[in-house]
Amino acid sequence: MPKSPPPARAPSSPTRRKGANKGASVHFTHFDEAGQAHMVDVGGKEVTHRVARAVGRIAMQPETLALVRSGSAKKGDVLGVARIAAIQAAKRASDLIPLCHPLPLTRVAVAFAFDAGTPAVEIEVTAETLGRTGVEMEALAGAAVGLLTIYDMCKAADRGMRIDAVRLAEKRGGRSGHYLAP
Q1: CB-based contacts of 29, cutoff 8 Å, min separation 6
Q2: What pLDDT does residue 100 have?
């Protein structure tokens, strides 16, 4: 069994690490020179079209997946409600994540797919803006809350559902350019 990492602690100086950006040394931008958390100043950045796509999945019993697919779950249209929840979460990401900038989103799209082999429901949330900072957190918040909503609506039938693989799949725009997850 792998050893657990040591507990996280607040850095006394800006945290730097290798490997995150093509081998270059980068730092955690939400800490100032004194190691204090702060909201990043994006005032000097250019306004560009920014897009982020986040994905995730919720595994469940085959019978639960059948209820979701048919739209006959006791609480109604599970995916319709989860879609609205994902959009709302993307719009409210800055209320949920302390140092996240509030952004005027120009588009939030939510798509679902079924993985009958597992069985699972997969979610993909795409968020877009014209702004000075990226929309990764909005897309990730949308994916996570969309999956949590599926869990909430189906928990009476299946408390053993498992949410996993929530991650950034792609981001475009801004100074760091295009990122596509492997």
Answers
A1: 40
A2: 87
Q: Phi first, then psi: what are they for 104, rounded to 5°?
A: -80, 100
Environment class of 149 (CB within 10 Å of its CB; exposed 0-12, middle 13-18, buried 19+): buried
Q: DSSP letter at 111?
A: E
Residue 110's pLDDT is 98
Distance in angstroms (rounded) separating the CA atoms of residues 38 and 177: 24
Instruction: Catalogue the active-site residues.
Output: 152
CA 91 – CA 130 distance, rounded (Å): 14
Which residue in this structure is represented by tokens 């657990």? 4
Q: Are 176 and 150 in contact (CB under 8 A)?
A: no
Q: Which residues contact 113 (CB under 8 A, 6 or more apart)?
A: 121, 122, 124
Q: What is the pLDDT of residue 146?
A: 98
In degrees, to the nearest 5, what angle opens at C-alpha 140 toward C-alphas 139 and 144? 120
3-state secondary structure of 56: strand
Q: Which residues of the chain have pLDDT under 70?
A: 1-27, 30-31, 37-38, 40-43, 73, 75
| Percent helix, strand and coil across the chain, each to the nearest 5 | 25, 35, 40
